[in-house]
TrEMBL record:
GO terms for biological process: secondary metabolite biosynthetic process. PANTHER family: ENDORIBONUCLEASE LACTB2 (PTHR23131:SF0). GO terms for molecular function: hydrolase activity; metal ion binding. CDD domains: LACTB2-like_MBL-fold. Belongs to the metallo-beta-lactamase superfamily. Glyoxalase II family. This is Beta-lactamase-like protein. It holds the Pfam family WHD_BLACT. Keywords: Hydrolase, Metal-binding, Zinc. Residues 32-203 form the Metallo-beta-lactamase domain. It comes from Dichotomopilus funicola.
Length: 313
């Protein structure tokens, strides 16, 4: 946290995009969850709602007053608490703004209904296209901003560091899809900002080169997988208990997940090892599905199968 650049509570990023921090800085939320208010007219789009901190509701209320605007639709990237926790505060703001019951119900339905892949949301100055990008979570979506040629990446790509994921195969496929969006939409949208290729993450600063950052993420995941493979393949190296179930056939030793983490992430603070273990587990299950690794000792340890090759990423 000490090395992260500070982010103001409210920042106008473009004439039609205002970022409002959720007021929840932390080890995994970085400077806090970013929420975005989009549009130029009296009706705006809101991406994510933070986790319910009073400071976020106060800031949003102030910005809407200054902009003389109301939230027409709120869209959520995924159902983690730091993204949906402010829904109740948003409903309070709708009531305070005197929005009619029918309109409030319509807005609420957008907030809680499942967003369809390819669904569009429009207000003056902003058109968002939702794209289903599972991996971080099964329900994760990103939003392509047609007028600016930019992408709101949710938790799939962050402004600093890397993200966690629940399914590695889905996650990498989604990253590839996200990278392709910039190219697919560049020639079909005529907005003044088309081709900016920025990425607006749910945590951290704006990424100026979205496609470059996504490619970096994909390379990083491949490198982590290769590190796991090479550690499992190690001949002569032993895990902390000295178990050596695989050295006779050249496939290295059997390791527990945390032994792999401590070897691969030796330069990372131990306070982050538990989070890193999730990624290692996902890699091991991917290798298992590909027939390249197997769990032994009642699932406590992992080793390569005979003849397992290099990373497929």
């Amino acid at each position: 946290m000490a090395t992260l650049p500070p982010i103001p509570e409210v920042t106008r990023l473009t004439p039609s995009c205002i970022r409002i921090l959720a007021g929840n800085p932390g080890k995994f939320t970085l400077q806090g969850t970013n929420t975005y208010l989009l549009g130029t007219g009296p009706r705006r789009l809101l991406i994510d709602t933070g986790e319910g901190r009073p400071s976020w509701a106060t800031a949003l209320r102030r910005v809407l007053s200054e902009e003389r605007a109301k939230v027409a639709h709120a869209v959520i990237t995924h159902r983690h608490g730091d993204h949906i926790g402010g829904v109740g505060d948003l409903r309070t703001l709708w009531r305070e703004a005197g929005q009619g019951q029918g309109e409030e119900e319509g807005v609420g339905s957008w907030t809680h209904a499942r967003i369809a892949d390819g669904q569009q949301f429009r207000v003056e100055g902003a058109t968002l296209t939702a794209v289903h990008t599972p991996g971080h979570t099964p329900d994760h979506v990103v939003f392509f901003w047609d007028e600016e040629g930019a992408l709101f990446t949710g938790d799939n790509v962050l402004g600093h560091g890397t993200s966690v994921f629940g399914d590695l195969g889905q996650y990498v496929s989604s990253l590839e899809k996200m990278g392709q969006l910039y190219e697919e939409k560049r020639d079909t949208k005529g907005g003044t900002g088309a081709g900016t290729k920025k990425a607006y993450p749910a945590h951290g600063e704006v990424v100026e080169d979205g496609p470059g950052k996504i490619a970096e993420y994909i390379r990083h995941r491949g490198q982590r997988e290769e590190q796991v493979v090479q550690t499992l393949r190690s001949v002569g190296a032993v895990s902390t208990t000295g178990t050596n179930n695989g050295s006779e056939n050249g496939n290295g030793v059997a390791w527990t997940v945390m032994e792999l983490v401590k070897s691969i992430y030796r330069d990372v603070p131990e306070s982050l090892h538990l989070a890193a273990a999730n990624g290692v587990v996902q890699i091991l299950h991917k290798l298992e599905r590909e027939g390249r690794a197997v769990a032994v000792d009642d699932g406590e340890r992992w080793r390569l199968v005979n003849g397992a090759g290099r990373s497929a990423l």
